[in-house]
Amino acid sequence: MGLLDTIAQNKYKSISVIGMAKNAGKTVTLNYLIDEAYSHGVALGITSIGRDGETLDLVTQTDKPTIYVYEGTLIATAEGLFEQATARMEIVHMTDIQTAMGKIIIAKIRHDGYVQIAGPSTTIGIQTVALKMQGLGADVVLVDGALDRKSLASPSVTDATILATGAVLSRNMNTVIDETAHRVRLFGLEKIKPEFHSEASSVIRERNVGLMKPTADGTEVKTLALKTALGAGRAIAREAEEETTHILLPGSLGEKLLADVLEVRGTLKGLTWVVKDATRIFLHPREWSIYTKRGLKVEVCETIHLIGVTVNPTAPAGYSFDADLLRCQLEQKLIDTPVYNVKFEETTWNF
After folding, report:
1. Enclosing H/E stretch for 319
2. Residue spans per domain, the chain
């Protein structure tokens, strides 16, 4: 079954596309989905997950490659990017969502051309514009996502997610396969238990670091005077009591944080680390293996429904892998997750 067949048969209404790294093929995947949707008469809405504190210069120079969109497509982007589009657009809705580049607007493409997309940076913002575009006629909403420490929104807000990977990760194909398989496994991490979910989600949503412990009445959370765990591993370790069972992180979980906690406590056993979703974990396969042997346990507030991995066998540095070999070996490693080379995909949309 092809990638678009999977989307069509399951009636997914929102799809996020995230890349393992810059130039991993995310834009190729997005453009493939856009082209195929247009060819089959599927009305699209498109937005992106913005980054906290994203600036106009950063966006326009490097981080938001232009995409080609067709007449009838809906886009949700910052008004500050309008003048850079070659596509002709009509504003159909102005939201109250503010960004560094102005308010998020929803526009309808009136003449084909290139656009830059910089959407809301929060989960509720993405939900709001996705629902609005669906209400305006979009059959499917595509969300340009990211594995990004600065992103506040989560790919879990969409019905399904596609992961783009490729040769840019390493000149060694086995490393590309191992890194990708590791990320896919992280997407399968357990969700925090229902009895803890509401309180943990609330603490993380408020961007607080929290320490949770059981009480006779349920649970108690101590919030620390930290808005990020970055560089605060020792402080967290010292604040954690013997009864502490969960550490709630509003941001990312990285190697330095765990190393500092381990230095103070001597072990990671007895603690469950809770992050918003698996895109907040920044540990390489070897690091993950080392720390899990030392007792690391991680749970997520929101799961990500991965429906496929796309491969880009060519790196900007000029080297490349055999496309079929990369796809086949990655498929063998992933087993339950389909792998696609979208340049050779064929499909029949049926909405």
Report:
1. none
2. 3-189+304-340, 194-300
Q: Would you tell me the crossing angle of helices 173-186 and 323-334 to the nearest 10 degrees? A: 40
Long-range contacts from 4-7, C-beta under 8 angstroms, 24+ separation: 4/33, 4/36, 4/40, 4/345, 4/347, 4/349, 5/347, 5/348, 6/307, 6/308, 6/338, 7/140, 7/160, 7/307
From residue 58, alpha-carbon distances to 67, 73, 101, 153 in Å are 17, 26, 11, 18
CB contact at 8 A, 341 and 329: no
- In one letter, which amino acid is 126? I
CATH number for 3-189+304-340 (one of 3.30.390.60, 3.30.930.10, 3.30.1330.40, 3.40.50.300): it is 3.40.50.300
Mean pLDDT (the chain) is 89
Write out the DSSP string of 220-257: EEEEPS-S--TT-HHHHHHH--TT--EEE-SS-EEHHH
Q: Looking at the DSSP assignment, which residues form a beta bridge with residue 312?
A: 166
Pair of tokens at residue 69? 């969109």
Q: Is the pLDDT of residue 231 over 90?
A: no
Strand boundaries in 100-186, DSSP class E: 102-111, 113-115, 140-144, 160-166
Task: Write out the H or E segment, with its range, that includes residue 35.
Answer: helix 26-39
Query: Angle at the Cα of 303 (from 142 to 273), degrees rounded to 5?
Result: 135
pLDDT per position as a tens digit, 79-124: 999 888 999 999 999 999 998 889 999 999 999 999 999 999 888 9
- Strand pairing of 339-340 and 306-312? parallel
d(CA 41, CA 20): 30
Cα 246 to Cα 192, 197, 213, 220, 223, distances in angstroms: 10, 11, 7, 10, 12
**Residue 112 half-sphere exposure toward CB, CA atoms < 13 A:** 5
The predicted model scores a pTM of 0.90
